[in-house]
Design brief:
Order of helices and strands of chain B: HEHEHEHEHEHEHEHEEHHEH
Number of domains of chain A: 1
Number of strands of chain B: 10
Structural class of chain A: mainly alpha
Helix content of chain A: over 70%
CATH superfamily of the largest domain in chain B: Bordetella uptake gene, domain 1
Organism (chain B): Devosia limi DSM 17137
Distance between the termini of chain A: 58 Å
CATH topology of the largest domain in chain B: D-Maltodextrin-Binding Protein, domain 2
CATH class of the largest domain in chain B: Alpha Beta
Strand order of the largest sheet of chain A: 1-2
Number of strands of chain A: 2
Order of helices and strands of chain A: HHHHHHHEEHHHHHHHHHHHHHH
Radius of gyration of chain B: 23 Å
Distance between the termini of chain B: 81 Å
Largest sheet of chain B: 10 strands, mixed
Radius of gyration of chain A: 22 Å
Keywords (chain B): Receptor, Signal
Family (chain B): Belongs to the UPF0065 (bug) family.
Oligomer: heterodimer
InterPro entries (chain B): BUG, Bug_dom1
Shape of chain B: globular
Largest sheet of chain A: 2 strands, antiparallel
Protein name (chain B): Tripartite-type tricarboxylate transporter, receptor component TctC
Chain lengths: ~500, ~325
């Protein structure tokens, strides 16, 4: 344990290098910007910036991308409170009480509580991560091909179950993602699959243009297709510092939010959106006056805001220690690491301790920076909300094209990006969340590789997956999750029939 | 009068000299593109970026390194070979340049006739390494074990159709043993599995396993180079263990499109050799067990041709396919 903290201290010395401070600040700034602006989310932004990070040292790249992610949690709440529009999906619940506080003339304290709860959660979570990471990473060191296979299966099952929207469409997305990931040269046998004789496809579809298309280009099309509709709260924001009563009520809520959020962030399929919803529900349930929620309860801001920030941070842990991305943003981070030739997994901590601990320690700095960016500079962000969106789009699109081309210097990637931009827009119209697709795209080839390696090593004996205890337990949990989901699905069907 | 005559003579001489220099020496007048068909951060990219500044300084024009990836190196190699043969496009290729002709269907280039070899840059042997707890402590033990229980022992490699895979298959053929090949996605995950004991052994290039060998995390059983490696002098070669015809290297070389004027070939080769033989370049690689070769274009060309034949035979008899 002491080791972990001395590592964290070393990480801090990495994070405090001038270059890394600058990139951390840049990430936090961009994160706040896109958090404030509804439309482009962190996934799309990170997708757009992936090719840029290619030219940065790996630590600076990851520090910046992480800053965007948790920075967006801060920025998102500003829009939620002032405009009653969630800047990010994770700040949907902040609209409920935050906007009501703003309407009753307490916009300042609402913004203050949101930022301070996030800071509080961010700092505590860094220490939680430090403790968990070492243990998980040591455990993963003993994983063989069979254990990894079962772990990836669990990750994929969780991706389907946790997905927003219908299970059917999530399943469809998973299978589509798996199919797309099969394109290219098979690692185990070297066979070319679904390449139609095109050399451009023989290394498979690149992750960067796929993600940029599905998330960034599709978002742009969607935003252009829908009329802009934003009414920024008129009137003064007032003083930002909450009063003593606010603090007294928020502190326990933020603590509960932090604990709940950091736990939910660790789960495969978890992340800030889940964290914030769960924290809101918890606060409402614990409150003596649950009926007042939705009318401007400060606990309803503090709890979810703490939770979304802490789960944004802890969701790095499964990626960095086990190599499984638990949500699409983490899939992007995995992509960023792979660009630099770093395979996410237990090795990151031993082989690239600078990256691992530097990244975690940078979150301490980043959270402090974010409070400064968000509170005193709130006026800047409010005025940004008045800029019409159509002015941003052409620039973003051009940037996407340059980015998609620059990774491999291959124009084919631009075509891939544009095709998936339209596909992604179609998904939005069909209300099919593309998150499971991108997770399956990352996990699919790994599942296959580990499955076949485990089979080769056991000389074709499939019982290797259940005779090894860790692998067996992981598969058992996956089976339980599937069983539970099916059960609740059928119950709902029955209830529907009964009521019909 | 005399003065003028001397001046005239001097000018004539100077012109003559510079004329001669122009005839002998190719001088580039714009930047030269060095195409790397593999992603940034890999070995070929590292070599290209190490050479580029010094080569550029020697030629008086910047060398622009461009990663053109895709198709397992095929797209980038195609771009090198399809460029104008004027000396302004060169590229780096790896061992797979010779073997891919037998492995990739409809390969869009011919490694022998479509390229003008410049020089082989480096080569490194492959090491057979095992987990320290593995019963076979020497290559002899391993051969005996493999003969006693055919088809049960597994070895890892960095991937299908790469040097480690060829080394394993060549050893199987030559020693008449049967092992299971387990390909990994790159050398590092395979090495981890050997260290963790998930797989007993693997063939991987010496430079990639050296630190783990020195730390005692894996035990080297043999190397595939013709002579023992300077960084692991105690480790026998496969030939010493009686396994012949299994000499495998992973190599990197520079090529230009075929039809490059001979003056350009000569100049590029001459400057490359000077850069490669600089001690800061060769010593740094020698510490990793990588040998700087810097041979003549003809030798490199002959080597590529012989590798194409050798791998053709090996791929056929070991029944290695990518299809």
């Amino acid at each position: 344990m002491m080791d972990s903290f001395s590592n964290l201290f070393n990480g801090l010395s990495v994070a405090l290098q001038v270059q890394n401070i600058l990139y951390c600040f840049g990430g936090a700034l961009i994160g706040t910007l896109i958090g404030v602006l509804p439309g482009l989310g962190p996934v799309a932004t990170i997708a757009i910036l992936l090719p840029v990070t290619f030219y940065l040292p790996p630590v600076a790249a990851l520090v910046m991308l992480a800053g965007i992610y948790y920075g967006a949690q801060y920025g998102g709440s500003t829009t939620a409170i002032l405009v009653n529009l969630p800047g990010e999906s994770s700040s949907i619940v902040t609209c409920l009480d935050g906007y009501q506080m703003a309407r009753s003339g307490r916009a300042g304290p609402a913004l203050g509580i949101a930022a301070l709860s996030s800071l509080y959660a961010g700092v505590i979570t860094v220490f939680v991560m430090t403790i968990f990471a070492t243990g998980l990473s040591e455990m993963a060191m003993h994983f063989g091909a069979a254990e990894y296979f079962s772990l990836m299966v669990l990750g994929l099952v969780a991706a389907v179950i946790m997905a927003q929207g219908s299970v059917i469409s999530a399943l469809a997305m998973v299978f589509l993602g798996l199919l797309l990931s099969l394109i290219g040269t098979d690692v185990s046998s070297g066979v070319q699959r679904m390449t139609f004789g095109m050399f451009d496809l023989s290394d498979g579809i690149d992750f960067v243009p796929l993600a940029m298309g599905l998330f960034a280009v599709a978002e742009i099309i969607k935003n252009l297709a829908e009329p802009e509709d934003r009414i920024v709260l008129k009137g003064k924001i007032g003083r930002l510092l909450p009063n003593w009563d606010d603090v007294r009520r928020s502190a326990p809520a933020a603590t509960r939010g932090t604990i709940l959020g950091s736990f939910l962030g660790l789960l495969p399929g978890g992340g800030p959106t889940l964290g914030s919803f769960a924290a809101y529900t918890l606060e409402k349930r614990l409150s003596k006056t649950p009926e007042k929620f939705g009318t401007g309860m400060v606990e309803g801001v503090a709890g979810p805001e703490a939770a979304n920030n802490s789960s944004a941070q802890t969701s790095f842990i499964p990626l960095l220690t086990l190599g499984i991305p638990s949500n699409p943003t983490m899939a992007m981070m995995a992509g960023a690491m792979l660009i630099h030739g770093i395979q996410p997994g237990p090795d990151v901590m031993t082989k690239n301790p600078d990256i691992f601990w530097g990244l975690i320690a940078s979150m301490l700095l980043g959270n402090v920076m974010l409070v400064i960016i968000n509170l005193p500079l709130i006026g800047v962000w409010v005025s940004l909300l008045k800029i019409p969106y159509r002015l941003f789009y052409p620039a973003i699109l051009v940037f996407c094209c340059i980015g998609a081309y620059s990774v491999n210097s291959n124009p084919f990637d631009i075509v891939v990006m544009i095709v998936f931009g339209f596909v992604g827009y179609a998904f939005m119209k069909w209300k099919a969340e593309p998150a499971p697709l991108i997770l399956a795209f990352i996990l699919g080839p790994l599942i296959e590789e580990y499955f076949r390696r485990a089979m080769l090593l056991s000389q074709g004996n499939p019982t290797t997956f259940i005779s090894r205890p860790i692998s067996f337990s992981l598969l058992l949990v996956s089976a339980a999750l599937i069983g539970f989901t099916l059960l609740s699905f059928f119950r709902r069907m029955q209830r529907k029939e009964a009521s019909a | 009068m005399l003065n003028i005559g001397v001046k005239c003579l001097a000018i004539c001489l100077a012109m003559g000299v510079s004329y001669a220099a122009m005839a002998d020496e190719w001088v580039p007048d714009k930047p030269i593109k060095l195409i790397v068909p593999y992603p940034a951060g890999g070995t070929s990219d590292m070599i290209a970026r190490l050479i580029a500044p010094d080569l550029g300084a020697a030629l008086g024009q910047p060398i622009v390194v461009e990663n053109k990836t895709g198709g397992g190196g095929v797209s980038g190699t195609e771009a090198i070979i399809g460029a104008d043969a004027n000396g302004y496009t060169i590229g780096i290729v790896a061992s797979s340049f010779a073997s891919s002709v037998h492995l990739v269907p409809n390969l869009p280039f011919d490694p022998i006739n479509d390229a003008q070899p410049l020089t082989m840059v480096t080569r490194v042997g492959v090491a057979l390494i095992a987990n320290p707890d593995f019963e076979a402590k020497t290559i002899g033990d391993l051969l005996a074990m493999a003969k006693a229980e055919p088809g049960t022992l597994a070895y890892g490699s960095a991937g299908n159709g790469l040097s480690g895979h060829f080394a394993g298959e060549a050893m199987k053929l030559s020693a008449g043993i049967d092992l299971i090949h387990v390909p990994y996605r790159g050398g590092a995950p395979g090495l981890n599995d050997v260290i963790a004991g998930q797989i007993p052994m693997m063939f991987n290039v010496i430079s990639s396993v050296l630190t783990s060998v020195q730390a005692g995390k894996v035990r080297p059983l043999a190397v595939t180079s013709a002579t023992r490696s300077a960084v692991m002098p105690d480790v026998p070669t496969l030939a010493e263990a009686g396994i012949l015809d299994a000499e495998i290297y992973e190599w990197y070389g520079l090529i230009a499109p075929a039809g490059l004027p001979s003056e350009a070939t000569a100049r590029l080769h001459a400057e490359l050799v000077k850069v490669l033989q600089k001690p800061e370049f060769s010593d740094r690689l020698a510490d990793l067990g990588i040998e700087v070769v810097a041979n003549a274009p003809e030798e490199f060309g002959a080597f590529i041709a012989s590798e194409v034949d050798r791998f053709g035979a090996l791929i056929k008899s070991a029944n290695i396919t990518l299809e």
